[in-house]
Write a structure and sequence with these properties.
Layout: H1 2-20, H2 41-45, H3 52-56, E1 62-69, E2 72-79, E3 108-111
Antiparallel strand pairs: 1-2, 2-3
Length: about 120
């Protein structure tokens, strides 16, 4: 249980950190007017080789969270793991083995503009 909380906190912390790290506004070009692509839940989640039938058969819930940052907008797509009465750490995931936060496909962050601006020569 402690490992689950740590892993979940780590994922949230990294996501918030990436979105919150803003650069110096004076060195950044003004963002163009952009809109987030209208992604359906399935489009946000599907790898090219995943069929719609396979996507509908998933038991873990999927979540999409809209994000806004100084250079545009985006969506964070992630699989919300669901224990459904099972003991995850120690049973489903043996102690000492790697456990990936999320379910099904890996977390994806879709952005409409560049997140970081790099100065020439840096």
């Amino acid at each position: 249980m402690r490992h689950q909380r740590f892993a979940g906190s780590l994922l949230i912390g990294v996501s918030v950190g990436l979105l919150a790290c803003g650069g110096n506004a004076e060195t950044q070009a003004a963002p163009e007017e952009m809109q987030v692509a209208d992604l359906t839940m399935d489009e946000c989640w599907l790898r090219p080789e995943t069929s719609q039938e396979d996507a509908r058969a998933r038991v873990s819930p999927r979540s999409v969270t809209p994000v806004t940052f100084e250079n545009g907008q985006g969506v964070l797509c992630y699989g919300a793991p669901s224990a459904r009465g099972r003991e995850v750490m120690g049973e489903l995931v043996p102690f000492g083995s790697a456990w990936r936060v999320g379910a099904d496909e890996a977390t994806a962050l879709h952005l409409t503009g560049p997140r970081f601006h790099w100065r020439r020569g840096s």
